[in-house]
Specification:
The complex is a heterodimer of chains A (about 325) and B (about 120). Chain A has about 325 residues and is mainly α. Chain A contains 12 helices and 4 strands, in the order H-H-H-H-E-E-E-E-H-H-H-H-H-H-H-H. Chain A has helices at about 1-25, 30-60, 75-85, 90-130, 165-170, 170-185, 190-205, 215-230, 235-245, 260-270, 280-310, 310-315; strands spanning about 135, 140-145, 150-155, 160-165. Helices cover about 70% and strands about 5% of the residues of chain A. Chain B has 2 domains: about 1-70, Arc Repressor Mutant, subunit A (Orthogonal Bundle); about 70-110, no CATH class. In chain B, about 55% of the residues lie in helices and about 15% in strands. Chain B has a 3-stranded antiparallel sheet. Chain B starts with a helix and ends with a helix. The relative contact order of chain B is 0.11. The chains are: A mainly alpha (about 325), B alpha+beta (about 120). Chains A and B meet through helix 4, strand 3, helix 6, helix 7 and helix 8 of A and helix 1, helix 4, strand 4 and helix 5 of B.
Chain lengths: ~325, ~120
């Protein structure tokens, strides 16, 4: 019982307080990749501890250990006490329900995301291949369209696409910067990162609203990360002027509410030399990410570990 | 496989630039390749395009005459609109260099930049 309560408390704290802290953290723009990993680890940690909490309750089912006899009898008996919960069968069923419901929701979110992604990727790549020209720019498709757009579609048959409007708007250096940015997305496999994030966050959103803001944030971090990578190959000033030129154009039908703050953040970062998070802070962050995964596992295995430590199970 | 994709683009280019319905034999005659493509290859490509909804066809005599469902510009405009306005709620495969901003946001950005 005690480990189930600890795990549930941990999940609640991580899903509200820790998520709120990460959402408002300011170090994230200096270490975008770490920030993405932190969001993923936090979500995985909440999911893991909630599922383990349900499982810990379910284990206390009175009949589970009844069949174990002989050598392991004492051990099983002790284990049962370690996880035992008042309320018996009812509590156990509740735990089992929680566990299965979480598993079902995670599976459903994963299937929905992956099938939607695959379908859209295939149809879009097929249409872009018919409409775009591949002989104008090396490594990119050029689509004849007035509005200046640049984007990439990740996956096995990945594409970088720019419009003729973009070619007309940017000079050569700016265009190279934009292409370097898109190549960075593909190299860093951001489509996979975003898929994993969507699965994790959409599983949790109904229970923890703090994860609602997580997806726009990791999208933004993916852009920052691609900017960082691009400026190692091209001049940061060119990337900045491309961004500025495209951001201030009147949008024909702005159905998307991109925020000025995000663009401003990117522009400001490109103005100065890249101020990355220090080595110490980065290591500390990585440690935190590891802890987010290990702590729920330790809490779940707590009673069993404690008994092993005391040697009860070894005595048989 | 990629080769097939290239052929689809070539076939569509011919149909888009001609404007008239073309049979497989018409298209084959317009494609200048050495060695020449097999009739069945072009037939397969056009059948695929029809199945994917890019072409409509109508029986003329013994063969089908194919025509694009939409002209190139309309098709492009539609696809670009779809790609730019996708909020990423269903798909996350698309990564844009820059999301479109509303005029209010553009003004806010300009103010922030001190213009």
């Amino acid at each position: 019982m005690i480990s189930a309560i600890l795990l549930a408390t941990y999940a609640l704290t991580a899903g509200t307080l820790a998520a709120g802290w990460l959402r408002d953290a300011t170090w994230t723009t200096r270490a975008p990749q770490l920030a993405i990993a932190a969001w993923q680890a936090l979500a995985a940690s909440v999911l893991l501890s909630l599922a383990a909490s349900g499982l810990a309750l379910a284990i206390s089912f009175p009949h589970v250990s009844a069949d174990l006899a002989g050598l392991f009898n004492l051990c099983a008996e002790n284990l049962r006490h370690g996880y035992a919960s008042p309320g018996g069968t009812l509590t156990s069923l509740l735990g089992l329900t929680l566990f299965l419901a979480l598993l079902a929701r995670a599976t459903w979110c994963a299937l929905r995301t992956t099938t939607a992604d695959r379908r859209e990727r295939t149809t879009r790549v097929a249409a872009l291949d018919l409409l775009g020209r591949s002989d104008l720019l090396p490594g990119a498709l050029v689509v004849d369209h007035d509005a200046p757009y640049a984007f990439c579609i990740g996956g096995r048959s990945h594409r970088i696409v720019v419009t003729s409007g973009l070619l007309a708007t940017l000079d050569q250096d700016e265009l190279d910067a934009v292409l370097a940015h898109e190549h960075a997305h593909l190299r860093q496999r951001h489509h996979l990162t975003m898929s994993a994030c969507r699965i994790l966050f959409s599983t949790l959103v109904p229970f923890f609203p703090a994860f609602r803001r997580a997806m726009p944030q990791v999208r933004m971090y993916a852009e920052l990360s691609a900017d960082d990578s691009a400026r190692r190959h091209v001049d940061a000033g060119s990337l900045r002027s491309a961004l500025l030129r495209l951001a201030c154009l009147p949008a024909p039908a702005a159905t998307l509410a991109a925020s000025a703050l995000d663009v401003e953040t990117r522009l400001l970062r490109l103005e100065a030399p890249n101020r990355r998070l220090g080595r110490g802070s980065t290591a500390f962050g990585a440690l935190g990410i590891g802890a987010a995964i290990v702590v729920p596992l330790l809490l779940a295995a707590g009673p069993a570990l404690a008994m092993a430590w005391e040697g009860i199970c070894l005595l048989g | 496989m990629r080769q097939f994709g290239d052929l689809e683009a070539v076939v569509m280019d011919h149909l888009w630039s001609t404007g008239d319905p073309l049979t497989v034999r018409d298209v084959l005659a317009r494609i200048d390749r050495d060695p020449p493509l097999a009739y069945t290859t072009v037939l397969t490509v056009m059948d695929n395009l029809h199945r994917k909804g890019f072409l409509t066809r109508e029986k003329t005599g013994r063969a089908f005459a194919y025509q694009p469902t939409k002209d190139r510009a309309a098709h492009t405009a539609e696809l670009m609109h779809e790609l730019v306005s996708d909020s990423g709620d269903t798909s996350v495969t698309l990564l844009r260099f820059l999301d479109q901003m509303s005029p209010t946001e553009v003004n806010r950005l300009k103010r922030a930049l001190g213009d």
